[in-house]
Design goal:
9 strands; three-stranded antiparallel sheet; Arc Repressor Mutant, subunit A; 10 helices; six-stranded antiparallel sheet; Jelly Rolls; 2 domains; about 20% strand; alpha+beta; globular
Length: about 300
């Protein structure tokens, strides 16, 4: 069967919040091979409508996926996905995809709602989410106002996906306030160097009790949350502020550049220098493409 593509949106109208860049559906998609992972340079959400296959990325994450799975792609993380060689021909891979970018989505990432450690999610029923995504992005290219409205509708879709309904009895009153105080204690400048055991004592808890409660409410252990926060900021410093690796390490409080580079590679899958090189190459390629388009 031949691959079929329908473009729903091809939008060049930017707004101060960001934009929906392109969206569409693909049927009988061949996929991106693991041997040739790509860096997209923007955020994207790929929602699998039928078929099955795999998701893989440069950090070593590997997942089997099927209908109802969402693949969340991040600007700087090389990835691959698609059907396997054993996928049945009578049930081909079909998807709806949305590519998006902008400051508001960077904020979502900083707040942990777009989480690079969880690139595969699930949302069902398929028919419902297909309609929600389609209706959210259509018409984004019509005008600046339409582009902004589409960004707002798309945020509503993301909120519905990534903020599931609260389960009765899952959290006690005051837990969210407690979590916010714990996060502030873990990541604030005044306490960033304190051992987690010391922070636990500030909450009159043992380390084990503090870790258990924090993980129940946030999904991460305190140590992993702290590392994630620091290295998310590291990506911003290297990508957006253009800091040298040594300066970024110093800004983030690492004892030396080597220690920073080692932890960064564990988290991102690339060394800081490789990360900066890929971002620079991508921006150069995009600038070249824009220049060629403007000369036509």
């Amino acid at each position: 069967m031949d691959e079929k593509t329908e473009i729903l949106v091809a939008n060049t109208v930017n707004t101060k919040l960001g934009r929906i860049c392109v969206a569409g559906t693909q049927h009988c998609k061949a996929g991106i091979p693991v041997s040739n992972m790509r860096i997209l340079g923007r955020y994207a959400l790929v929602y699998l409508l039928s078929g099955g296959g795999y998701y893989a990325d440069v950090r070593g994450i590997r997942r089997r996926v099927g209908p109802g799975n969402l693949l969340v792609l991040f600007p700087e993380i090389a990835h691959a996905y698609g059907p396997t060689a054993q996928s049945p021909k009578e049930d081909p891979w079909s998807e709806i995809y949305v590519v998006f970018e902008g400051p508001v989505f960077d904020l979502w990432r900083r707040q942990g709602l777009l989480d690079a450690r969880r690139p595969v999610r699930r949302a069902t029923p398929v028919e419902y989410w297909l309609r929600r995504m389609d209706s959210a992005v259509r018409g984004a290219q019509a005008s600046p106002a339409a582009s902004l409205a589409a960004v707002c509708r798309w945020q509503a879709v993301l909120a519905e996906i990534f903020t599931p309904p609260r389960v009765a009895g899952a959290a006690m009153p005051g837990d969210q306030a407690w979590l916010q105080r714990a996060i502030a204690a873990l990541t604030g400048e005044a306490s960033a160097a304190l051992p987690v055991e010391s922070i636990a004592r500030q909450f009159n808890l043992s380390y084990v009790a503090f870790r258990k409660k924090f993980k129940r409410l946030s999904g991460f252990s305190p140590v992993k949350y702290r590392v994630k926060t620091v290295l998310d900021r590291a990506c911003e410093l290297l990508r957006d502020e253009g800091l040298a690796v040594k300066n970024a390490a110093h800004r983030l409080g690492f004892c030396d550049e080597f220690h920073f580079s080692r932890r960064f590679k564990q988290f991102v899958g690339l060394s800081p220098r490789q990360f900066r090189q890929q971002v620079s190459a991508l921006r150069s390629a995009e600038a070249g493409g824009s220049d060629r388009k403007n000369r036509r």
